[in-house]
Each structure stands twice: as structure tokens, then as C-alpha cells.
């Protein structure tokens, strides 16, 4: 199963799901470039175990100039999967009570920046390759019958829409995947979430790998089931 010629570039990997995804692909024998905006004990520990297959880089996804600099520094490196994991949550107030700065922070980090990052790093994508973003089940407009998490939901729905727009401009491929990872025990998901990081990221890795060579745009959960947009 190990295949070091396959590589993942994951943005926002300091902890939680991004760190778990890094761990999962390293365990599968892949080479990984993992970025974080600050230092990460988890990534540093993985680096000591996989010095040759893990490359660590610093990047705040809200800084496109830094991303362009990093992309040029990666040179002719080719990645099989380009995945934007980074995301933030707010205090879950109803939208009408959201401060403009907070609304902007969520929309920028969760929707605009991931799409910008994809455009900046897409030239590094191998053929065939896969582009993925960490969406959320809460990003489904169809399934939003309960409300709550107004701005976070809207930011993930915006991310899904922006991803579909990009996919429509690139019908020849690669695959564009919006991933709903499930409710996972991380700092964001909290201690009572139903899934552990390893289970969710094992499923997400299977889903991403299954779409190498495809040119579809899909919204999928960690088991590979379609989520209603
Ligand atoms: N956990 C869940 O149940 C769940 C469910 C659905 C979707 N998601 C999504 O999954 C993704 C990861 O969530 P998580 O549960 O692992 O959350 P988390 O534990 O809060 O981790 C968030 C990650 O995003 C990074 N990040 C945030 N803003 C960034 C920026 N501007 N530049 C670079 N990195 C940034 C954080 O880096 P720092 O360490 O520097 O803050 C951290 O690595 C998010 O997109 C989230 O919306 C999570």
C-alpha cells in the first residue's frame, strides 16, 4: 500500500483534523507537505518519525502573498491531493447579532481563503489529482432545517458554492471535493462529538484517494456518501 510517489499538500495542519489527515497519509506511505500558521507540537513529533516524507511549512491561509511565495518555493514539486483543511468557528450567535468583523473573519477564513489557496497551489497539482476542502455537514443548504450556527453554516455553504463555481470552470478535472468529516472530537468539535479523529480521517483519506482520476465535483461525507448541497 505504501506509495511515496503519491503526495498530499494539506493547509492548516497544526492540530485536529489537519494533523490527523497528515498522520493518516504518512501511515499510508505518502509524502506530505503540511502547513500551519504557527508552531505545532503534533507536526514536530510527526517530523521526527518521518523526516524524509514530511515537509513542514508556515502559512496563514489568509495571506495570499505568503502562499504565492510558498508555492514558488515548492518549485516543480507535484502533489496528488491538494487539501485545504483550515477553518474557524464563531460564538454561534444568530446572524443578525454577528459583529461585522466576526462575520468577515469567518467568511474570509472558511470560504474566500480556501478558494484563493486552491488557485495559488493548483499549478502544483499532478494529473490525475484531487482538490479537496474541509466543508461541514452544516454547509448543506438542503439539510438546514434546524438552524443554529448561522454564520458558520453560511461560510461553509459559501465555500461549497465557490468550489462548485471553480469546478464549473475546470470541467476537464481535477476532481473537486467538499468533505463533510462528521462530528469529530477536536478543539472545534468538542469532547462529546461522536467520532475520533483517526476514524474520520481514515474515511476521508479513502474518499479522496477513490476520486483520483475523476473530474467530478461532489459533496461527500467521511464514508463517501453524497451530502445534499
Ligand atoms: N471537528 C468537527 O466536528 C468538524 C466538523 C465539520 C467540519 N469541520 C471542519 O474541519 C476543519 C478542521 O476542524 P477541526 O475540528 O480540526 O478544528 P480545530 O481543532 O479548531 O483546528 C482548526 C485548524 O485550522 C487552522 N487554522 C485556522 N485558521 C487558520 C488560518 N488562517 N491559517 C492557517 N490555519 C488556520 C488551525 O490552526 P491554529 O492551530 O494555528 O489555530 C487548526 O489547525 C475546519 O475547516 C472545520 O470547519 C470540523
UniProtKB/TrEMBL annotation:
Gene Ontology molecular functions: oxidoreductase activity, acting on the CH-OH group of donors, NAD or NADP as acceptor
Q: Which Pfam families match?
A: adh_short
The protein's matches in InterPro entries, at most eight in alphabetical order, are given as: NAD(P)-bd_dom_sf, SDR_enzymes, SDR_fam
Which SUPFAM superfamilies has this protein been placed in? NAD(P)-binding Rossmann-fold domains
> What Gene3D superfamilies does the record tag this protein with?
NAD(P)-binding Rossmann-like Domain (3.40.50.720)
Q: What is this protein called?
A: SDR family NAD(P)-dependent oxidoreductase
Query: Which species expresses this protein natively?
Result: Lichenifustis flavocetrariae
Amino acid at each position: 500500500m505504501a506509495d511515496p510517489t503519491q503526495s498530499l499538500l494539506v493547509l492548516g495542519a497544526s492540530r485536529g483534523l489537519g494533523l490527523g489527515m497528515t498522520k493518516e497519509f504518512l501511515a499510508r506511505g505518502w509524502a506530505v507537505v503540511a502547513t500551519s500558521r504557527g508552531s505545532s507540537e503534533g507536526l514536530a513529533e510527526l517530523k521526527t518519525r518521518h523526516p524524509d516524507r514530511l515537509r513542514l511549512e508556515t502559512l496563514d491561509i489568509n495571506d495570499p502573498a505568503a502562499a504565492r511565495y510558498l508555492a514558488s518555493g515548492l518549485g516543480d514539486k507535484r502533489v496528488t491531493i491538494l487539501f485545504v483543511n483550515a477553518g474557524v468557528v464563531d460564538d454561534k450567535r444568530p446572524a443578525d447579532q454577528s459583529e461585522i468583523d466576526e462575520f468577515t473573519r469567518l467568511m474570509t477564513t472558511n470560504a474566500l481563503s480556501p478558494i484563493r489557496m486552491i488557485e495559488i497551489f493548483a499549478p502544483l497539482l499532478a494529473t490525475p489529482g484531487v482538490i479537496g476542502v474541509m466543508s461541514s455537514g452544516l454547509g448543506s443548504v438542503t439539510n438546514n432545517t434546524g438552524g443554529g450556527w448561522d454564520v458558520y453554516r453560511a461560510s461553509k455553504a459559501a465555500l461549497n458554492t465557490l468550489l462548485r463555481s471553480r469546478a464549473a470552470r475546470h470541467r476537464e478535472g481535477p476532481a473537486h471535493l467538499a468533505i463533510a468529516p462528521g462530528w469529530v472530537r477536536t478543539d472545534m468539535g468538542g469532547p462529546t462529538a461522536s467520532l475520533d479523529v483517526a476514524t474520520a480521517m481514515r474515511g476521508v483519506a479513502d474518499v479522496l484517494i477513490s476520486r483520483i482520476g475523476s473530474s467530478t465535483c461532489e459533496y461527500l461525507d467521511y464514508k463517501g456518501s453524497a451530502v445534499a448541497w
